Amino acid sequence: MSVFEPFEAFGDVDEIADRLRDPDPSVRRLAAIELGETASPEAVPLLAAAIADPAPEVRRQAARALADFDGIEAARALASGLQDPDAETAAAAAESLAELKDPEAAPALLPLVDHADAFVRAGALRGLKALRSPAAFAPAAAALRDPAPEARVQAVGVIGYLKLSEALPSLIGAARDEAAEVREAAINALAFTRHPSAAEAVAAALDDPDWRVRAAAAESLGRIGVGDAAAALVGALRDGFWQVRQKALVSLGKLRQRSAAQAILPLLDEELPLLRKEAAAALGEIGDAGAISALERRADDPDPDVRKTARWALTRLGG
């Protein structure tokens, strides 16, 4: 029996490297693809060189291939690609940066948080998010004042992933940002805390003018699970957007407070089957026997998912 060589099936790295010097850009582009497929650490410096190739199609492919690697060398190459004048290459580098996981890669990205280009700043912050490097907290907190909303969104992501207690005031402040996408990101990040001040900020967002922020708030309140979350969510059941009502139903089911059951009952008659299903599920989770008769009506609902969920809820309530 032969010994398995992990990179043998994908070609020899040295042989592929020779094709990176071919005068034909299409040959060099295919070589970049094959280098990524080797999964060999030896491919990283070669792809780092290819990300400076004269042909944009080669640079793009090298940036895409580096998504399968990690570490400081890959991060430095992608940081260079993020600043490429070719928009597609820069976008490919930004996507690959988001795949980095090694905190040791953070020093390659931190200087770019102050770059003159908003796209580069946002891409660097996006890459820093999954690294969870404590060194990124201060630059990300400063980036919450960035003039570009896309950079502020990514800064919120960095701070939220770090899950530091000292980050709470920054996230609460971002929940009042002028840009809806930043407020939504902050509300989602606050879901990972269980602090009363976070619950208060999220509950306030149920009155946000943007329905997406309200939907995020309805979902996050169920995750935080502290304070008077159920009372706030009961009000969200009357929201004009079904997406908000749906998130509120799911969260009320998680909280399992019987005081919410009566407010949920009318949603069993919603026109949208998804809302009838979520109302039945929430009532089943809450476990209030007073909902049995209303659920029995939905046990023969025209929608199969609603029927199944209503019957499941009835078994939970002894109906």
Topology:
Elements (H helix, E strand, L loop, with lengths): L12 H7 L5 H14 L4 H8 L5 H10 L6 H11 L4 H11 L8 H4 L8 H14 L5 H7 L5 H14 L5 H7 L5 H11 L5 H9 L6 H14 L4 H8 L5 H14 L5 H4 L8 H14 L5 H7 L5 H14 L2
Helix pairs in contact: 1-2, 2-3, 2-4, 3-5, 4-6, 5-6, 6-8, 8-10, 9-10, 10-12, 11-12, 12-14, 13-14, 14-15, 14-16, 15-16, 16-18, 18-20, 19-20
Describe what this molecule looks like in 3D.
There is one protein chain. With 319 residues, this protein is an all-alpha fold. It has a domain at 1-101: Leucine-rich Repeat Variant (Alpha Horseshoe), CATH 1.25.10.10. Helices cover 63% and strands 0% of the residues. The protein contains 20 helices and no strands. Helix 5 packs antiparallel against helix 6 (87-97). The chain starts with 12 loop residues before the first helix and ends with a helix. The model is unreliable at 1-9 (pLDDT under 50).
Summarize the structure.
The protein contains 20 helices and no strands. The protein is mainly alpha-helical and 319 residues long. Helix 9 packs antiparallel against helix 10 (149-162), helix 13 (196-204) packs antiparallel against helix 14 (211-224) and helix 18 (273-286) runs parallel beside helix 20.
